[in-house]
C-alpha cells in the first residue's frame, strides 16, 4: 500500500535546535524532525503545546518534558519535536497550524507518536498525577498500535476478497488516531469505503465527525457575519443527510432555531423547537427544547400584537395664533424629537442584545453538544483507564517494599468533562443575563 510523506516541504532552512545524536533535545520545526527521523530511522514523538495560555502544557513541560530523564529515555527511539501554538506569537502558531490540521489535533497538550514518514499511530494525553516514568511507559506502549497497523497492512495486501480486505482495513484504521484518518490515511480510508460500500461503522463515524466539524466552522463564520438566512440554509443541508445520529440532528436543529430567532421568523422557529423536542424529550437538549418553544411562541405573540397608537395632544388654538405660532410649532417638534430618538436608541440596543444573546445561546448549545460527546468518550475510555490502573496496581504490589499508593487520579476524559461543564455553566449564566437585558429593552420599546 502506498504512503506519502506529509508536509515535507523545503528542508534546507532547518531549525538551529537540530543537534547531534549525542545531545538529544527538542526540535521546534516539523520538517526538521521529519528529516532527522528519516536519516536515523527513528520514529517521531511530537508534542502539541500552548506555551503561554495552556496551564497543563506548562506543567507537563516543567515537570516532565524538560527533564533529562525523559529526554534521554524518549530520544533512544524517537526524534523529539515540540510544536508550539502560543497566543502572543501568532506567526509561530500559523507556521505550525498545517501540521496540527493534518494530524487532527483538537486539544492540548498531547504527545503524538508517528513513524519516520510522519504517519501517526498513537497519542498520549496529559495525566495530572503521572511522573516521567509513567509517560515513558505510555509512549512505549503505543508501539503495539504500530505493530497492529503494519500487520493489518500485510493482511490487506495478501487478501483475496473484499470481505478480507474490509476486515484488514478496519483493523489498520482502528489502530491509529481517528482524527488523523481523513488526512494521513486517506488512501486506506477510501479503500475501506469502496470495499464496504460505505457501510463500515468506522467509515460512518469518520464521515460523521468530519461533516460535523465542517458545519461548525462554516456556521461560526456565517453567524459571526450575521448571515442568518445562510445559516438556516446550511442547517437544512446538514439535516438532509441520511444516517445522522441523534446528537447530530439535535445540534443541527439547535443552530437552526437560534438563526431563525435572529431572523425574527418566530413561526418556523416554533416548529424547529418542536422537532428538536421530539427527537428525545428526556435528554437535556430535549428538555431545553420545550423552553425554546415557549420563547419562540412568546416572541410570535408579541410580534402579532398591534402596537398602540398614542395620539399627540394638540395645543390650544390660542397658542397657535399670531407671533406665537412658530414658537409653539418649534416647541411641539422639540417635545416629539427626544422621544423618537430615545425609542430609536432603545431599538438599536435591543438589536445589539439580541445578537449577543444569539451568540451566547449558540455557544451554549455547542458547549452542551461538546459535553455530550465528552461524556460518551469518557464512557468508552473508562474501561481502558480502569484496566490500565489495575495493571499498574498489580505491578506495584509485586514490588518489594512499595510505598502506599497515592489516590487514583481523574481520567483525562473526566477532566475534560469538568472543564466543559464549567464552560456550560458560564455560558448559561451569560445567556440568562442577556435574556433579562433583552426583556427590559423590549418593555422600554413598547412604552
Please describe what this structure looks like.
With 447 residues, this protein is mainly alpha-helical. Among the domains are: 30-146, Glutaredoxin, CATH 3.40.30.10; 226-304; 339-371 and 412-447. Helix content is 66%, strand content 6%. It contains 16 helices and 4 strands. The chain has helices at 30-40, 55-65, 68-75, 90-103, 132-141, 143-157, 162-174, 181-184, 186-196, 201-224, 228-239, 246-263, 266-279, 284-304, 324-397, 412-446; strands at 43-49, 78-84, 110-114, 120-125. A 4-stranded mixed β-sheet has the order 2-1-3-4, with helices on both faces. Helix 7 runs antiparallel to helix 9. Mean pLDDT is 79; it is low at 1-21, 318-325, 327-338 and 401-409. It comes from Roseibacillus persicicus. Residues 308-342, 380-421, 428-447 are annotated as: Disordered. Pfam families: Thioredoxin_7 (PF13899).
Key attributes of the depicted protein:
4-stranded mixed sheet, 447 residues, mainly alpha, 16 helices, disordered N terminus, signal, Glutaredoxin
Write the CATH architecture name of the domain at 30-146. Answer: 3-Layer(aba) Sandwich
Terminal Cα span: 73 Å
* Overall outline: elongated
CATH level-4 homologous superfamily of the domain at 30-146: Glutaredoxin
How much helix, percentage-wise, in residues?
55-70%
Radius of gyration: 30 Å
Summarize the structure.
This is Thioredoxin domain-containing protein. With 447 residues, the chain is mainly alpha-helical. Helix content is 66%, strand content 6%.
Amino acid at each position: 500500500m502506498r504512503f506519502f510523506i506529509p508536509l515535507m516541504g523545503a528542508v534546507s532552512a532547518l531549525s538551529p535546535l537540530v543537534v547531534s545524536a549525542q545531545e538529544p533535545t527538542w526540535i521546534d520545526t516539523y520538517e526538521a524532525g521529519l528529516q532527522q527521523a528519516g536519516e536515523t530511522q527513528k520514529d517521531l514523538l511530537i508534542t502539541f503545546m500552548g506555551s503561554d495560555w495552556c496551564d497543563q502544557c506548562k506543567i507537563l513541560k516543567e515537570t516532565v518534558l524538560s527533564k533529562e530523564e525523559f529526554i534521554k529515555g524518549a530520544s533512544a527511539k524517537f526524534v523529539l519535536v515540540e510544536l508550539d501554538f502560543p497566543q502572543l506569537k501568532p506567526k509561530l502558531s500559523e507556521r505550525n497550524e498545517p501540521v496540527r490540521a493534518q494530524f487532527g489535533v483538537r486539544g492540548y497538550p498531547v504527545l503524538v507518536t508517528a513513524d519516520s514518514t510522519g504517519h501517526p499511530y498513537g497519542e498520549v494525553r496529559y495525566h495530572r498525577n503521572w511522573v516521567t516514568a509513567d509517560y515513558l511507559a505510555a509512549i512505549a506502549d503505543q508501539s503495539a498500535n504500530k505493530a497492529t497497523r503494519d500487520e493489518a497492512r500485510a493482511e490487506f495486501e495478501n487478501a483475496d476478497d473484499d470481505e478480507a480486505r474490509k476486515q484488514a482495513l478496519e483493523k489498520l484504521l482502528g489502530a491509529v488516531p481517528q482524527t488523523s484518518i481523513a488526512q494521513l490515511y486517506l488512501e486506506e480510508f477510501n479503500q475501506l469505503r469502496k470495499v464496504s460500500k460505505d457501510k463500515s461503522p468506522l467509515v460512518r463515524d469518520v464521515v460523521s465527525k468530519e461533516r460535523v466539524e465542517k458545519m461548525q466552522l462554516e456556521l461560526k463564520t456565517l453567524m459571526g457575519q450575521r448571515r442568518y438566512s445562510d445559516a438556516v440554509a446550511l442547517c437544512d443541508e446538514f439535516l438532509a443527510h441520511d444516517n445522522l445520529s441523534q446528537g447530530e440532528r439535535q445540534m443541527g436543529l439547535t443552530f437552526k432555531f437560534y438563526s431563525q430567532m435572529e431572523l425574527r421568523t418566530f413561526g418556523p422557529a416554533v416548529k424547529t423547537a418542536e422537532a428538536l423536542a421530539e427527537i428525545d424529550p428526556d435528554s437535556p437538549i430535549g428538555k431545553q427544547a420545550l423552553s425554546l418553544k415557549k420563547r419562540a411562541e412568546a416572541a410570535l405573540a408579541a410580534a402579532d400584537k398591534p402596537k398602540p397608537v398614542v395620539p399627540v395632544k394638540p395645543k390650544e388654538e390660542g397658542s397657535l395664533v399670531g407671533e406665537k405660532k412658530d414658537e409653539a410649532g418649534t416647541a411641539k417638534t422639540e417635545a416629539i424629537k427626544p422621544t423618537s430618538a430615545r425609542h430609536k436608541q432603545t431599538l438599536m440596543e435591543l438589536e445589539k442584545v439580541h445578537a449577543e444573546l444569539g451568540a451566547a445561546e449558540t455557544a451554549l448549545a455547542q458547549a452542551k453538544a461538546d459535553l455530550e460527546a465528552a461524556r460518551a468518550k469518557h464512557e468508552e475510555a473508562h474501561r481502558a483507564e480502569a484496566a490500565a490502573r489495575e495493571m499498574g496496581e498489580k505491578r506495584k504490589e509485586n514490588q518489594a517494599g512499595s510505598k502506599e499508593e497515592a489516590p487514583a487520579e481523574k481520567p483525562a476524559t473526566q477532566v475534560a468533562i469538568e472543564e466543559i461543564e464549567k464552560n456550560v455553566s458560564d455560558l448559561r449564566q451569560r445567556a440568562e443575563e442577556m435574556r433579562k437585558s433583552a426583556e427590559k429593552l423590549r418593555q422600554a420599546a413598547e412604552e
